[in-house]
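Methods: holo model generation. Sequences were used as deposited, without trimming of termini or removal of tags, and paired with ligand SMILES retrieved from the corresponding compound records. Each pair was processed once, and we did not select among multiple samples. The sequence and zinc ion SMILES for this entry were:
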Amino acid sequence: MRAMVVKEWGQPFTLEERPDPEPGAGEAVMKVRAAGVGLTLVTMRTGVFGGEVPRVMGHELGGDIVAVGDGVTNVKPGDRCGVYFYLNCGYCRWCHGGRETLCDNHGGYVGVHVDGGYADYVCLPAGNFLPIPSGLSYEDAAIAADAVNTNWHCMRERAQISPHDDVLLIGAGGGVGVHGIQVAKAFGARVIAADISDEKLEFARKWGADEVINVRAVNDLGEATRKLTDGKGVEAAVDYVGASESFTAAIGALATAGRAVVIGAKPGTVQINPIDLLISEKTITGSRHSTRTELMETMEVMAKGTIKSAIGKRVHFTEVETLFEDLQAETLLGRGALTYDD
Ligand SMILES: [Zn+2]
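and the model returned the structure below.
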């Protein structure tokens, strides 16, 4: 099979011919039919997530199971499947308790700690393959598995969006953010999209944002947000950037009992006034990816057409490097997608 291989972290992909994978006990092999590409991959390729090289990257995937190893009962050849991104143990308190992204025995990520799907075939623990509901394309199933399900977990569990909420999304014009707009709208929120360029904000509007704020055109994002909410502030602020400045702005934009959630993050510090938290019962928290169940729910919601994948550009998987270049240059609007041969 053909595989796009990272030989050293930080280096471009190399097209290699490799033997087709054979499933070991408890594993399954999927022929990849579609894949997604986002900014997280660019960060991962720098090596900051760890993992051994050489490595085949790629975790947003859809395809057909072609072979299963001994003991596999959850999938069979011919099944259309999406892929769950995390390698969790399945038996710790967090895995059992419905919060598996906090797994005590977290084994890393597909495409970082084991080979992913920028290749004709991918071999993974069978439990990482989840059925694609009928009516959902391979490509939508791929995009569901990071760009959308991360938002599904965030908006419902962490930001706890209700139909009467005003919600601020910082970095809403990015590949994950534009899907966040749709998920927040699906939970009934009024969405205020903040980003740094008019082009990204226009894209955010196209995907459903009710109001937009160009962060570079205002002095204080919190103040600009309050102007759009009759002085109240927002019930939830979700920060896709996760820099000290952006998360400080997220907290500053909150209404009474508001929730500030960091969903993308950079190293930094944020100052918090404990009195403000006490008086107004604000919540400051993070949101980490999604559970398998939430990915299945996300695919079902997408199959109904409530949330659509926002694809900015498609290339063949052997040309994935061009999408990485676009992401680094910040010229890609929405998610990148890869096509595969029939
Ligand atoms: Zn676990």
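The domain at 160-286 is CATH 3.40.50.720 (Rossmann fold).
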